[in-house]
Amino acid sequence: MAPIPVTPLRTLDAQAAADLGDIDGPVVIRGLHAPWRARGLWTTEFFRREYGPTPVPVRNYPAGSEYDYTLAHTTLGDFLDYWENTPADTALVRDRQYLAEWNFVRDCPGLLDDFDIPEIFSEDCIERLPEQVRFGRMWLFFGEPGCSTGLHRDTFSTSAWLAVLSGSKTLRLVTPEAGGKLRPGDGLWSAASYDEVLRPAGAVVHEVTLRAGDTLYIPGDWYHEVRNPERNLMLTANFVEERRLLSFLSQFETRLIEPISVLRRARNAQVRTWAEREEKTPPTELDDEAFRAREAAWVRGMTAELEEYGRALARWGAERPDGPEHEAPSDAG
Ligand SMILES: O=C(O)CCC(=O)C(=O)O
Ligand SMILES: [Fe+2]
Predict the structure, then answer these.
(1) What is the CATH number of domain 6-243?
(2) Which residues contact residue 191 at a Cβ distance below 8 angstroms, ignoring those fewer than 6 apart?
(3) Ligand nearest to the CA of 163
C-alpha cells in the first residue's frame, strides 16, 4: 500500500493569533509560552523535589501494545525514576508507562503559578456554569515513546490547547465529518483506514510534530490520534468556546441526566404498580389531588424549558435576514 499522504498544519506566530473566532481549523501557535516560568522551572528534579510523594495516574502498556493499556497509580517520584532510568522502547519489547491526564490542578495547585492560560484560549464557557457541575480540564502528560493515544475526539465537543514544554509529540487530525466516517478500530496511521475510508471520502489527513514552544489548537469535534516520538512534557487544557456552547450543553446535560433517568424510571414503575393494584389498599400520595397538581405542574415546567429551546431552534433560520426564507428567489417574476 502507498504511504498515507499527510498535509502539514498551519503555523502562526503568537502575535498573529489574536482571536480564535478567526481560526476555523487546527493550527500551531508558536511563542505563546515564552513568558512562562514553567519553561525553565519544570525539570524532573523540580517535580521530584516539590511533588515526589504525590499520587499520579499512569497508563501501563504491556509489551507489544502501542494503544492498549491498563490504568494504575504510582507516585510522581516513582514514575520519574522509571522515566529517567529506563531506556526508551519504540520497538515495544517491554512494558511501558505513560503518565497521562494528571489532574495537577487538584493535587498540586501551586503549579498554576508557573504559567498563564494564553489570552487567545482564555474564554472558557465552563466558567459560567455553577460550581457544582464544573469539572477538571487541565492536565500534564509526561510522554513516553511507544505509548500512543488512539483515535478520539475530546468529550462534549470541547476544544483543546496542547503546549509542549520539552521533547516532541506527533499528532494526526481529520475533520469531524471525515472522522465520523471512520470505523471502530480505524486509525490515522493505518493504511487500511486511509485506503478504505478516508481516501474514498476525499479526506485530508493533517500531521504535526510539536516541539518545545509549540502550542496546538484543536477545535471541538476534530478527531485526532497522538504519538510520542520521544519523551516530552505537555501541558494541555480543554475549554468550551461560545460558538460551541449549545453542543457542549446538550451533551453534558445528557451525561448529567443519566442517573436522574434511573430515578425517573423508578418513579414511573411505582405509579404503574399502584395503578395496576386490584384492590386499593392504603391511600397513596397519588390520592391527594393537590399533590398530583403539584407534580403535574413540575413536569410541565421541566418540559416547557426544552420545548422553548425547540421553538427557538425552529425559528432561528426563518427569522434571520440571511435565513432560508430570505434566500434569493429562484423563480422570481
Ligand atoms: O497526548 C496524548 O497522548 C493525548 C492528548 C489528547 O488528545 C487528549 O488528552 O485528549
Ligand atoms: Fe484529545
Answers:
(1) 2.60.120.650
(2) 1, 2, 3, 4
(3) 1
Nearest CA, atom 8, ligand 1: 154
Domains in the chain: boundaries: 6-243, 247-322
**For the CA of 154, the nearest atom of ligand 1:** 10
Q: How far is the CA of 160 from the centre of ligand 1 (A)?
A: 9
- Residue 332, pLDDT score: 40
Alpha helices (runs of H) in the chain, residue ranges in sequence order:
38-41, 44-51, 76-85, 104-107, 176-181, 191-193, 245-276, 289-319
- Return the biggest CA–CA distance within the chain: 80
Which percentage of the chain shows pLDDT scores above 70? 95
Quick: pLDDT tens for 133-181: 999 999 999 999 999 999 999 999 999 999 999 999 999 999 999 999 9
Sign of the Cα torsion 190, 137, 36, 80 reads negative
DSSP class of 182: P
The set of protein residues with a Cβ atom below 6 angstroms from ligand 1 is: 100, 141, 149, 154, 224, 226, 234, 236
CA distance 10 to 7: 9
| Rounded Cα gap, residues 5 and 172, in angstroms | 11
**What's the whole-number average pLDDT of the chain?**
93
Calculate how far, in angstroms, residue 173's C-alpha sits from the geometric centre of ligand 1.
12
Cell numbers at 190, concatenated:
493505518
pLDDT cut 90: percent of the chain above it: 85
User: Counting ligands in written order, which one lies closest to the CA of residue 220?
Assistant: 2
Q: pLDDT at position 333, please?
A: 35
